[in-house]
Each structure stands twice: as C-alpha cells, then as structure tokens.
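BUG: 3D viewer hangs when loading the predicted structure for this chain

Environment: internal workstation, default settings.
Expected: structure renders.
Actual: progress bar stalls at 90%.

Input used:
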Amino acid sequence: MKVITGVTTDPLTRSVALDLERRGFVVFCAVPPANDSLIEQEGKHDLRALPLDIPEVCLYAEPGLIF
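Structure tokens produced before the viewer hung:
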C-alpha cells in the first residue's frame, strides 16, 4: 500500500495520483464531502473520492496515525 499526501487541487498531487492510477493502482483521495465530485470529474475508474471531514478526523485520531 502506498500513501501520498497533498492538497487534491495541487498540480503535483494530481499528477502523482493520476500516474499511480495509470499504473494500475486504486487511488483514494481524501476530500471534504462537498468536493467529492472533483475527483469523479476526472472520469478515472480507479481514482476514487474518500469523503472525510478532515478537521474532525484529526481531532479524534491517535497521535502518529495521520502522516
């Protein structure tokens, strides 16, 4: 399993996600629930939105789980 981090609107993050999808990986992009359509607009079968309320997740996560 590979984990990449970055803002989904950042060109570098987008490029890496699309490259991994093109190489056969299933790529999940953590996005705010209101923005999951941004990922679906790419039209890639293995590029999937993972709607998360990021600030809420960070509040309840154990230290070291989010990196």
